[in-house]
Design a protein that fits this description.
Chain lengths: 214, 120
């Protein structure tokens, strides 16, 4: 590979790195970055690796700045996200306790009677229902309503700005939805994943019926 | 939203040297990089990613601003704002004060004081 090809290759990598920057930063500085890259190469001011490494290293900081700036302006659903996270916390703690116990049981180091969320909840079925179903649904609904409200309130935002500004609320809403589905469907999930893995989406409805009773 | 950066805040080495590079004249990106390397005797070597990241923050903080090239080049030039000049002036005064203090007290005594602070 001659020097011209090395130059082209290095420039292509540098362009790819620039593509990884946040869009607003990229739009503003892309030409300047490429111009500076060419200048540095022309003067042999630094190695290609130094320039590319420096560009890669500054990507996370640009995203931190981007989210910081964006959220500072748009993020207004923090109370809903915190409330949702608090509601999901007991569920997460139960899973955190039960999951290692389940793993030990699978490995043959634990008694089946002592493992699983059901065993932890024991006879407190009401409390278990609240923690495992009602709290996640509440977390989902609180953030869902907050996002709908934010959507009406901040109509001038682009979808990207809206998502960036409400990212915590969106994450909690998705987690709440997933947690609420976990209890009724957690036994069906392995069956469903295995069916999709083996047969793709052929016979999708029979698969759902088969896994419902798993 | 503009980030609040009082002119008397401590500046990072990169920001300080960029301000210093722009104190004499308007410069484009690569020119700033070369000047920073010269002024810092090679201690601060920045690539394009670091440079333009710093310039973006500095523009948000209203320390520098973009200007179009006077010679019709496509390059973007940068110059200090009044706030940038104040920030650089404050930092230089701080350095001058430190040098004066070191001369008055004697560098040996100053180093001894630092050793005491480090070990206390």
């Amino acid at each position: 590979m001659d020097a011209r090809h090395v130059m082209k290759f290095a420039r292509a990598i540098f362009r790819a790195v620039i593509a990884a920057y946040p869009a607003s930063y990229r739009k503003h500085f892309k030409e300047s970055l490429l111009q500076t890259f060419d200048d540095m190469r022309e003067d042999a001011a630094a190695s290609d690796w130094f320039i590319i490494r420096d560009a890669i290293a500054s990507i996370p900081m640009q995203y931190v700045n981007y989210f910081h700036e964006t959220m500072k302006i748009k993020f207004k659903n923090l109370p809903a996200a915190i409330a949702g996270a608090a509601l999901l916390l007991p569920f997460a703690l139960l899973v955190a306790i039960a999951a290692p116990a389940q793993l030990l049981y699978k490995l043959g180091y634990a008694n089946p009677v002592n493992v699983g969320i059901g065993q932890i909840i024991g006879t407190h079925v009401g409390l278990g229902t609240v923690i495992l179903i009602f709290f996640p649904i509440a977390a989902f609904l609180i953030n869902f309503v907050a996002l709908i409200w934010a959507g009406f309130r901040d109509r001038e935002l682009t979808v990207k700005q809206f998502v960036a500004g409400n990212v915590f609320s969106i994450v909690i809403m998705i987690l709440g939805f997933g947690f609420a589905l976990f209890l009724p469907f957690h036994d069906a999930i392995p069956c469903f994943v295995q069916g999709i893995w083996q047969n793709g989406f052929n016979n999708f409805l029979p698969l759902m019926n088969a896994c419902r009773n798993a | 939203m503009k980030q609040k950066t009082p002119a008397n805040d401590l500046l990072t080495p990169a920001v300080f040297y960029i301000l210093l590079a722009l104190s004499a004249q308007e410069r484009h990106g690569y020119d700033i990089m070369k000047q920073v390397k010269t002024d810092s005797a090679g201690a601060v070597a920045m690539g394009p990613g670091t440079l333009y990241g710093s310039l973006k923050r500095m523009m948000n903080d209203e320390l520098v601003e973009e200007v179009a090239s006077k010679t019709g080049e496509r390059r973007i030039y940068y110059r200090l704002t009044i706030k940038g000049k104040k920030a650089l002036g404050g930092e230089l005064r701080r350095f001058a004060g430190a040098v004066k203090f070191a001369k008055e007290k004697g560098l040996k005594q100053l180093l001894a004081l630092r050793w005491t602070l480090d070990t206390s």
